[in-house]
């Protein structure tokens, strides 16, 4: 695992690559970022969107939170980090795609799946947050009551992506641009054990493996 010294060495390599003899990329972005794709991804250290998609700086506007969740649009409360990022990406950057990137072995979804009143009472932040995906948990329990625990959790991970896609449409700025045909929404799932990327196909209602 990378130490702080190794991280600093990594920055020096980054600095040499992008601010050395060939500094055109960052020079072209000195007045703003050109990203046209917003990706909502998990905090999990194994799921770095830029690495998974082999992107350059400036390609992706990324929001990372526990379990890659999008809350429904709401005005209550004081702090709405994910919602603020969505608003900025849509209204200021005018992104053309929003991707919800879920993944296998998600600790946040596991916490949701295994939660009960006692566990929820002990959690000040995690369980209230992952409860956004509670409809996914209910759906899986009703649809797959006899499936193995692993199969149920995987289904919950994928279903939570769909819940977040649904919640995106509760934001008027997103809904309007989708209806105008200038913004597309996507659900992706990174299967870590298999090394596969699955994309949700709304026509089949299934997550389908991207062809190698």
UniProtKB/TrEMBL annotation:
Reactions it catalyzes = hydrogencarbonate + H(+) = CO2 + H2O
> Top enzyme class of this protein?
lyase
Q: Keyword Lyase, does the record have it?
A: yes
Q: Which UniProt keywords apply?
A: Lyase, Metal-binding, Zinc
Q: Which Pfam families would you find in this protein's record?
A: Pro_CA
Q: Which GO terms describe its biological process?
A: carbon utilization
Sample GO molecular function, one term: zinc ion binding
Q: Which CDD domains match?
A: beta_CA_cladeB
Q: What is this protein called?
A: carbonic anhydrase
